[in-house]
Amino acid sequence: MNFTPSRCLPIKTCKRCCQYSTGRNVHKVDTPVLLKNALPLAFNRSGGHGGKQKYIRLNSSQKRCFSSECDEVCHHHEHGEVRVRFAPSPTGFLHLGGLRTALYNYIYAKKYGGSFILRMEDTDQSRLVPGAAESIEDMLEWAGRTDLTTHIYTDLHTDLHTDQSRLVPGAAESIEDMLEWAGIPPDESPRGGGQYGPYLQSQRLSLYSQAADSLVQTGKAYHCFCSQQRLELLKRDALRSGQTPRYDNRCRHLRPDQVEEKLDQKVPHVIRFRLESGVEPFNDLVFGWNRHEVAQVEGDPVVMKADGFPTYHLANVVDDHLMKVSHVLRGSEWLISTSKHLLLYRALGWKPPVFGHLPLLLNRDGSKLSKRQGDIYIQSFQRSGALPEALLDITTHCGSGFNSNRVGRKMEELIAEFNPSKITTHSALLDLGKLAEFNKIHLQQRIDDAVQRDWLVRDLQGRIQEVYGTQVQDQDVLQPDYITRVLHLRKGHISSVSDLVSSEYSYLWVRPSFSDQQMAALSSEIQHIATLVIRLMEGLKGGEELTVDQLSVELKTLAKKTSNTKYRDVMKIIRLALSGLQQGPSVAEMMVSLGPSEITHRFNRVLQQLSRQH
């Protein structure tokens, strides 16, 4: 098998290690590996194409250097400071998939001492939606453009006036709120500002217009006057003949005088970018060497719409350049568009950033995360009592890019263990059924941390008042000491603070009710047992703090003082009087939670209820 120089392209290897990987072995080479069709295939030990050559074929997981030293170089080389960005479109509230993309960018920035930028791509202004429920879309998927066909379709149908995306009022502010709640606050953002702002694309229109004009002036772009009706006809004809719809580049062949005439007549128009053949391959941080000859399969894409707003392709290139973004980490659905973006960089005379495309986050069964399957938005998790660190832990645990894969990692541990060379191309399968277990682990960690515990107390105070309101008869249950005691006792048994305001734990906040018949069915010694409990509590008031072990012993002694009631039934009576329930935590734990005064109050009610019968 022979490869000629014209069909081989050199790979830029790391100057420090000059290594490539074949299987488990790392080989040092004297000259760059050669590649054919953007795949590393051969190297020449003699330093040229003459002499004996050894050919190797690498799979997709073997296209990157596996040296840890090379990893450090690759993330600092040539670009100076690491600057990454999360650039959602505020077409809805922050989605779990968007949070994961933001998280990887944040960790990357902090791992290499860089900056994490939040930029809102809000240039689709034509259709505002009053509510988010019907319009929330995945933050990085831009209306489902997940394959080449859809990319082409979107470019063809970026019409003169109407956009495909739908902005939700308040979504931009909510996205930043949720990032801060999740513990991944941006260093630069619409709210916080920064050196390279503004960070809302709708406030940067003049910059996109300047770039588009520059492309037209240099012949890299042209005015297109095709109507929406003509574009629809192109689409229909292509579909009828079984072809993929694409623009036929008609207007790139207009003479200058024809263009001037239409501009003078103020004919509505867009600006299209001239796609050229000969796309250079790029080395993706995750997927290795890639190249897509977009000119062979797509028509010239729109970069500036008739309303003066840019399309995604132009806006993101202009912004990444002007904001000095060094690394673009985004979803793998954008891998197919990267060659197009690189052509734009070349046409504008700008140096492109390093690209890394993250594998998709999918459901456990491999299906796409969808708004239709339920609440997978960060605000919903927040309302349900999910802890931000649990969400971050589960989304990284199901993926790759870390030196270990253990449960319970905090942010500083995620940053320390992050290793970009370990990010695989396989989609991350998310099992949300395990979120409760992740949350339980991180909840235990918070309860054991004084500062984080105070946050839990405040959160639980709000939930108690929201759920029970005026039903709370004793305001002492809202005191931090009382709630802290409950949290410590239930640690390891609950997955969320929201569990503590469920009916199962209502006895902690609201005094229960029960019927005389329920009590009578358990024993004829109800009055005697109630008196024994009150005496026990009076003996403990003002003394040492109650413990579960201590009360367990005391309760066994108490049960022996009854005449004909078994220990098991004595416990049922005490449980019913304290909680109105027939099951739950141990009776001793219930009593420690409530404390002597409240227990005495509840058993006095039992005695009052019995006295009304006679």
UniProtKB/TrEMBL annotation:
Domain Glutamyl/glutaminyl-tRNA synthetase class Ib catalytic: residue ranges: 81-145, 162-435
PROSITE patterns for the chain: AA_TRNA_LIGASE_I
Domain Aminoacyl-tRNA synthetase class I anticodon-binding: 476-606
Record keyword Kinase present: no
Any one GO cellular component localisation term in the record: mitochondrion
InterPro entries: aa-tRNA-synth_I_cd-bd, aa-tRNA-synth_I_codon-bd_sub2, aa-tRNA-synth_I_CS, aa_tRNA-synth_I_cd-bd_sf, Glu-tRNA-ligase_bac/mito, Glu/Gln-tRNA-synth, Glu/Gln-tRNA-synth_Ib_cat-dom, GluQ/Sye
Biological process terms in GO annotation: glutamyl-tRNA aminoacylation
Reaction(s) catalysed (UniProt annotation): tRNA(Gln) + L-glutamate + ATP = L-glutamyl-tRNA(Gln) + AMP + diphosphate; tRNA(Glu) + L-glutamate + ATP = L-glutamyl-tRNA(Glu) + AMP + diphosphate; tRNA(Glx) + L-glutamate + ATP = L-glutamyl-tRNA(Glx) + AMP + diphosphate
Family label: Belongs to the class-I aminoacyl-tRNA synthetase family. Glutamate--tRNA ligase type 1 subfamily.
Entries under HAMAP family matching the protein: Glu_tRNA_synth_type1 (MF_00022)
Protein name per the record: Nondiscriminating glutamyl-tRNA synthetase EARS2, mitochondrial
Native organism: Salmo trutta (Brown trout)
